[in-house]
Amino acid sequence: MVKTIKGIAASDGIATAEAYLLVQPDLSFTKKSVSDADAEVSRLKDAIKTSDDELTKIRDIAKESLGDEEAQVFDAHKMILADPEFTGAVEQEVKDQSVNAEQALHDVSENFISIFEGMTDNPYMQERAADVRDVTKRVMAHLLDVNLPNPALIDHDVVVVAHDLTPSDTAQLNSYVKGFITDIGGRTAHSAIMARSLELPAVVGTDTITKDVKEGDTVIVDGLNGAAIVNPSDEDVKHYNELAKNFADEKAEWEKLKNEASVTADGKHFDIAANIGTPDDLQGVIDNGAEGIGLYRTEFLYMQSESLPTEEDQFKAYKKVLEGMKGKPVVVRTMDIGGDKHLPYLPLPEEMNPFLGYRAIRISLDRQEIFRTQLRALLRASAFGNLRIMFPMIGTLQEFRDAKKVFTEEKAKLVADGVKVSDDIQLGMMMEVPAAAVLADQFAKEVDFFSIGTNDLIQYTMAADRGNEHVSYLYQPYNPSILRLIKHVIESAHKEGKWAGMCGEAAGDNTMLPLLLSMGLDEYSMSATSVLRVRSLMKKLSTKDLATLADRAVNESITNEDNKKLVEEYLNK
Ligand SMILES: C=C(OP(=O)(O)O)C(=O)O
Ligand SMILES: [Mg+2]
């Protein structure tokens, strides 16, 4: 039976392939006493052996597709299985307590995990707790004879179907993955942002996809319109092949603008830059002809590392990006951990509201040793290109001043040590906290630039979680309240002779573009794969015609829909 499931269009494109369910199985079990302990130990040994064989396979594939460093985690898992202190303890538990292997494994691993997690002065050992948890899950799945998904082992074209994908799940998807569909999530959640940079069609927030699809069903992901079609008819396949072809043709047209500047029909130039998460994204930036990098999310450097990245590791990454951009501006944002981005080796307190909690600049100013290391790496790299630095989640002027002070101190130390650092690094801030946006006129006197982070600015202004599909109707980019804030930020910057950019997802939105051009936004930073589409639309728009559009949007319109209509009418004129 053909089923069409609606969701949120999270990444453009269309893909058709077999469904791969990345769903965590039920690993619950009941405690049982056993009379034949030897038979139980032998069942345990079989499960350990199967797990170990599987890990060898995964490690080898990961090494080939992701590199040595990413593969190391699986070696760590194999070491736990080979460690008699761990497996021997489980065997002993089966014998001593006459319990089933599942119960023994659970008890011993919980014991190890709590010991490791308790080593608060040894982050290396704390990380091992996560490894024990992972390995235990694998052995438990084999004991219970249930399927544990192994995305690293995917060896044919699939569409991944999952309840949710974390940024680190998304980073592990290999090239056989042609798209993904999830139950939860929103367009600006980080997995959706990563899908766009990987050019993977994606639909999120379907609510029920993991129930609607079975392993092996054929699914079409329509990332353009936000739909998933399960077991499509021949007619559906034909229709979507046509849509996919039109999309490919359109992309080929945009491709022609790769080496052109971003100008409007009346010859006004604006910068279209790209957002990146790692130096590996650089090629996409160059291939899509971006005029700079408007946001380098450095937290991914921390997330892909096994422990806090050293100054040297960071220096190398920043230098590579700056050199790769050959003098074009690169805006690096200091670490924005917290919210939906976690570091396994930096345990943060459980919070009721992580997006309103201990995150970003709040952590950096509190844990200054981490912040200073990052700033030193950046300062050293500044000699190799056109570096600009910005701080995330600034809510008060005091936070910006404090961050700037730390920067100035580190710079002075390096200069005193004779290290070469650039003398004109612009220091700016993300405009993503409404309190700061309201006071943009005051901030503009002290910063070199603003970069408007609409992903967060919208969620905080509308009080609607950016990743929660149940409130996605309130996540309204064109709501006059949001547009007023954006307009005020841009005008405040200009009054002080500063520039204003935008690096939230709205910067790459076709409906937003006429409004932003009308407000005079200077820089537009987006997923690299959106650059040419936006450049193409910009070419068709004239700032003269647009002059009054923003005023109407913030003064006459009342709703998000009013403004959508206003822009549609303008574009269809
Ligand atoms: C660009 C932004 O930052 P992030 O998506 O990383 O929170 C934003 O909030 O708009
Ligand atoms: Mg943000």
Automatic annotation (TrEMBL):
One of its GO terms (biological process) is phosphoenolpyruvate-dependent sugar phosphotransferase system. It is an enzyme of class 2 (transferase). Coiled coil: none annotated. It is found in: Cytoplasm. InterPro entries: PEP-util_enz_mobile_dom, PEP-utilizing_PTS_enzyme, PEP_util_AS, PEP_util_C, PEP_util_CS, Phosphohistidine_dom_sf, PTS_EI, PTS_EI-like. Residues 251-541 form the PEP-utilising enzyme C-terminal domain. GO terms for cellular component: cytoplasm. PANTHER family: PHOSPHOENOLPYRUVATE-PROTEIN PHOSPHOTRANSFERASE. This is Phosphoenolpyruvate-protein phosphotransferase. It comes from Companilactobacillus mindensis DSM 14500.
